[in-house]
Amino acid sequence: MSEPNALIADVFLPDTQFPPDQEALLVDGLAQVGVTGRVKVVPIRRGLDQLNWLVLVALPLQGFLSAVGGKLAQDAYREFTKKIRGLLDRGQQKAGAARPMVLQDTATRIQVVLEPGIPEEGYQQLLSLDLSQFQLGPVHYDSGQRRWRSELDEARS
Fold first, then answer.
1. In this predicted model, what pLDDT tens digit does every residue of 2-54 receive, in sequence order?
2. Region for 103 from its dihedrals, namely left if φ exceeds 0, alpha if ψ lies in -120 to 50, beta otherwise
3. Considering the domain boundaries, does residue 21 fall inside one?
4. Contacts for 63-71 with beta carbons within 8 Å, 24 or more apart?
């Protein structure tokens, strides 16, 4: 049972026989930073080759980023990022192509895309990212510009 003020995340997994060890890795990673993960399997409505995310996690995103940021100096943060990177790397190896983990804010529906290869600097920037600056999303890390951005928001400006 979760605490009354605990963050809860709905973790949507594609119905493609997602390996139990990877599911446990993700749920354990969330638990490391104080988030209770509720796993839900989503049936695929398109071909597997069209599925553009490995995992979708819906939660109060700004609260989540603040909570993780508060644990930055702790082992919990390092373990969380290690598990997320491992999950992304395994998902890429299995699918043969980079499929990201997507964090979706339950209030605004803004999506933050975590792709394989995001540097430590990117994860640290994410923890202090003000999501209210984005209207459309999705938000992704641009390695060339070394910042989080939404191309759709920029095109609209």
1. 455 678 999 988 776 677 888 888 888 888 888 899 999 887 665 444 446 77
2. beta
3. yes
4. 63/7, 64/7, 64/9, 64/33, 64/35, 64/103, 65/126, 65/127, 65/128, 65/129, 65/131, 66/127, 67/7, 67/33, 67/34, 67/35, 68/33, 68/127, 69/127, 69/128, 71/33, 71/34
d(CA 69, CA 4) in angstroms, rounded, equals: 21
Residue 2 lies in a domain: no
Q: Are 9 and 39 in contact (CB under 8 A)?
A: no
Collapse the DSSP code of 136 into the 3-class scheme (helix H, G, I; strand E, B; otherwise coil) and give the result. Answer: coil
Number of separate domains in the chain = 1
Q: Which residues constitute the domain of residue 84?
A: 7-156
Q: What is the pTM of this model?
A: 0.77
Cβ(101)–Cβ(53) below 8 Å:
yes
Q: What is the DSSP letter of 102?
A: E
Q: Are 53 and 102 in contact (CB under 8 A)?
A: yes
